[in-house]
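Table S2 (text version). Query chain:
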Amino acid sequence: MTAKVIDGKAFAAEVRTKVASHVTRLKEENGITPGLAVVLVGEDPASQVYVRSKGKQTVEVGMNSYEHKLDVDTSEADLLALIDRLNKDATVHGILVQLPLPKHLDSDLVINSIDPAKDVDGFHISNVGLLGTGQRSMVPCTPLGCLMMLRDHHGSLAGMDAVVLGRSNIVGKPMAQLLLGDSCTVTIAHSRTKDIADVCRRADIVVAAVGRPEMVPGDWIKPGATVIDVGINRIERDGKTVLVGDVDYASAAAVAGAITPVPGGVGPMTIACLLANTLTACCRANGLAEPEGLTA
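Corresponding structure-token output:
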């Protein structure tokens, strides 16, 4: 068996096209332009790349992009004051504070100072609670992207056995909630899980989000299962730095029915879903119907 490759890059392009179409309609019919504000504190190289990419793609779909780059020694009071201004700014529909923050800043305090309705990362404790109780919320971008790809591949997920490897607040836990919401039977496995290989082998869907390079070999995968690899790990191989996932791609692709590659799988969907979330937040703020297929 050779697994179907789930092309996240192509799927993300489709999502951005849908978002752009909705943005055009919002402008023409309602005179509204969705706005995304991204706050970057410090000069972390990876964060700078992410912020540039987010800004570029925001503009490409017709939204307003507001970037706020602050010095690494910015005080907590100044950062919170900026967020308060953005919360009150009617032209800003989504607010994202790029993580990680410098160590002198309390990330939980900062994230929870964002208006939950503008929390397009879906990290605010109110959105976490709403998602966990099955209510309308802002949904974290990476799990949302995974869910979109699974729905596109399978149609209905009802009754499927899903295993989520990893219990982070950013991916593992919200991913499990989303799969439950689509009527999967869900197991969260982690570093203390006994017989983790056997747990994985029974799953129709495996979502790997542990941050350990190629941890999941093909013999952990049930024949025909769908594998969503969230991991992005840089390792040295043959004298070069390469990107690999949490799944050993070659051996898993020989067994699985479908699999996401790394790179080019889940990664591109994260920013696409950020744009989708900003559009959704804008529609909700203005009492307009939410675009179908772009949220959970």
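Notes on Table S2: The first helix runs from residue 8 to 30. The mean pLDDT is 96.
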